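Colleagues,

For the teaching module next term, I've prepared a clean inverse folding example: a structure given as tokens, and then the sequence designed for it. I'd like students to try predicting residues themselves before seeing the answer, so please don't circulate the second half yet.
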């Protein structure tokens, strides 16, 4: 179906990963989210949380037992004081997609309550002719969007008096976009990103390291040569594997903080870092560049650039047989 008819809008995406990736019990889920948020310091680098004007965040999307505490740092930084709509961009894990796709559902369910989809904005984006449409199966199979919905609901419940006032959601699934496509979608989304009432949430884990991810790259020092460890390689110690992973991720985070889309892509090409949300990150970085290029006002150089506030890994790899996934949280002021 190519049009958003009233009947078409009356559907709800189920919380398909509740009960496995996170708790399906509202009381337990609410308690866990609140606990992780409470563990975040009240200020970061001298800035009280939430950071004024921090309308864009990067946060992970693994099972909450792994990534929930790290994601809390991004959400605690997020400024929702002017929010009227929330864009959620996540990578496609199961479906090959050269561009971006939109949800056809009117709501996204969570054990805490439902979030309403912004159908007007979705229709505007669909009218560009550049967005595909997710099937219900694709939508509910993909976890990169869903894992943020409970956190979003929790944060909205703290900032608005009732669910009827919650800003609607604009879910966007981002595929394996090339540089030109990321620039194209950046151009399309830039006007929405420039709107001070828009919030953008980017879903991304960082390095997926190990034989099971087909990524065993190793770097001995920042800026050093990158090699690939074989199954029978002796475990390196100077640095250890997990320290090397940290260096690889630091290169990527530095490139993202640098604010230049092309440099981020160049860094990914050099290290081949398996950052699953690299494409949604690239799209938003491209959109930020459009805003800077077209702005007629003096803009603080620090605005429109990410600041990472948290980094951790699911485990510390010592041997080639080990594996881990990295989680990083960041915010950007606009």
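(Answer key — instructors only)
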């Amino acid at each position: 179906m190519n049009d958003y008819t009233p009947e078409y809008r009356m559907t709800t995406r189920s919380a398909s990963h509740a009960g496995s990736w996170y708790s399906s019990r509202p009381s337990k889920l609410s308690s866990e989210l609140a606990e992780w948020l409470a563990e975040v310091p009240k200020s970061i680098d001298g800035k009280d949380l939430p950071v004024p004007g921090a309308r864009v965040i990067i946060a992970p999307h693994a099972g909450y037992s792994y990534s929930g505490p790290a994601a809390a740092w991004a959400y605690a930084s997020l400024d929702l004081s002017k929010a009227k709509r929330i864009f959620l961009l996540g990578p496609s894990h199961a479906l090959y997609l050269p561009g971006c796709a939109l949800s056809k559902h009117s709501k996204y369910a969570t054990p805490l309550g439902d979030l309403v989809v912004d159908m007007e904005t979705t229709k505007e984006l669909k009218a560009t002719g550049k967005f595909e449409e997710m099937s219900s199966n694709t939508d509910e199979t993909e976890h990169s969007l869903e894992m943020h919905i409970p956190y979003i609901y929790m944060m909205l419940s703290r900032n608005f008096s009732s669910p009827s006032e919650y800003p609607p959601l604009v879910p966007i699934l981002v595929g394996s976009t090339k540089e030109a496509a990321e620039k194209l979608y950046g151009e399309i989304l830039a006007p929405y990103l420039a709107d001070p009432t828009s919030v953008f949430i980017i879903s991304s884990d960082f390095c997926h390291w190990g034989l099971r991810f087909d990524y065993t790259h190793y770097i001995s020092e920042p800026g050093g040569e990158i090699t690939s460890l074989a199954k029978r390689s002796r475990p390196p110690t100077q640095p250890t594997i997990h320290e090397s992973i940290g260096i690889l991720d630091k290169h990527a985070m530095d490139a993202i903080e640098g604010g230049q889309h092309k440099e981020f892509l160049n860094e990914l090409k050099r290290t081949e870092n398996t950052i699953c949300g690299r494409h949604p990150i690239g799209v938003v970085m491209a959109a930020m560049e459009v805003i800077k290029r077209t702005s007629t006002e003096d803009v603080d150089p620090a605005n429109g650039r990410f600041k990472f506030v948290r980094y951790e890994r699911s485990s510390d790899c010592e041997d080639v047989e080990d594996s881990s996934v990295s989680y990083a949280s960041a915010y950007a002021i606009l």
